[in-house]
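Data availability (excerpt). The following record was deposited with the supplementary files.
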Amino acid sequence: MRRRHAIVAIALAAALAATACGGGGEERAEPRTIKVAYLKFGTFDANDKLFKKVKPAFEQQNPGVTLELIPIEAPIDTEYHTKLSLMQRSESTAPDVLYEDSFRISSDAQAGYLRPLDDYLAKWSEWGQYFDAAKQAGRAQDGKTYGVLMGTDTRGLWYNQELLRKAGLPLPWQPRSWEDVLAAARQVKARVPGVIPFNIYSGKPMGEASSMQGFEMLLYGTGHKLYNPSSNRWIASSPGVTDSFRFIETVFKEGLAPKPQQALNPNFGTVVATDLLPKGKLAIALDGSWLPQSWLESSQKPWPQWSQVLATTPMPTQNGQAPGSVSMSGGWTLAISAKSRNPDDAWKLIELALNQENSRYLDVIASQIAPRKDVAADQEYLKSNPTVKFWTDLVEVTNYRPAYGAYPRISNEIAAGMEAVMTGQASPEEAAKNLADSIRSIAGADQVEDAT
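Predicted structure:
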């Protein structure tokens, strides 16, 4: 009898416990943690500011869910990606949401690191606010979308008006060809001693800043490209490749660029933004639309005078041929790890972080070009800095990297070739041949063609 009473008592206690936990029959969610990993370096803390802003709202909207912020300190994107890849190897260390460069989408999706987002996007009412080109940025070669673009960018020439005035150059300065750029740099070198005439990122330590922002800005300005979308083949060799390496050789051989030991500093991008340009040590910089983020009032090193000191002009094509100027564009996305145990919660974070309000906030503080139509038309965004219209207008002539599986390795070979040329270890012709051989090896002989 006592045994029966004991069994009944245990059953009753279990029932009461279940009722208490369930809150009237509803099962209480177990506490969960969503981890978001993102890049932070030097004065670049826009991601950190965004997620610190989003964290309390996300946790309030999702009771029982904690948002863990994982800022990854890395001077360049390649080092960031290396650290992120190490985290991705284990389910216990992999983040749920990650800051993913759009050019790595295809290769990382192919490697099984990313989760397709198409089912989520189909139900997201705000997806229609994104420009078509912005939607393409997160799409892999398999046709699935793995990332949502946070902001895009363009590239051109920044120049110090006072230094060019001292050199005797007309203002506004409007170069029409590569030779005009070189002539201006030579004039600065001759008449304004102690100043670096021109900077173009080059060499392996600067990663994509070298290959995409340096070499490909030149290559696409010759009329040649890295990839032929008509044949779906990589272009291993072309006159434009050799001419681009010749330009690199010229600026370093003639002392128009930083010394190689300066340029090969992996933190050189931060040096340019926080030291060389603000202190009047660099006359002309081939750089990006995002630089003002380093100088705005909200930055770590404000430079209130930047818009009076600096001016902008497009990077011209090689000989001034149509369309007359050239730009390259990229952008970073938010993606979900394939190893995330809570992808639905991860998607809720992306929805919140990239809604209209937070997208505008990020694009303003990071000096990015808005990928959303509603943000691009927003007056706060348009008035955020005086160069927004200039950089936005370059979208008309911009080019995007062939962000397919082979691209990251090809990009590394481009940077290696640039370094060999800038340090005198290879001639432009030798570097072009080595790059062609590498592209054939990486992509496969049947996926490659040559251009004349």
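Summary of structural features: The chain is about 45% helix and 15% strand.
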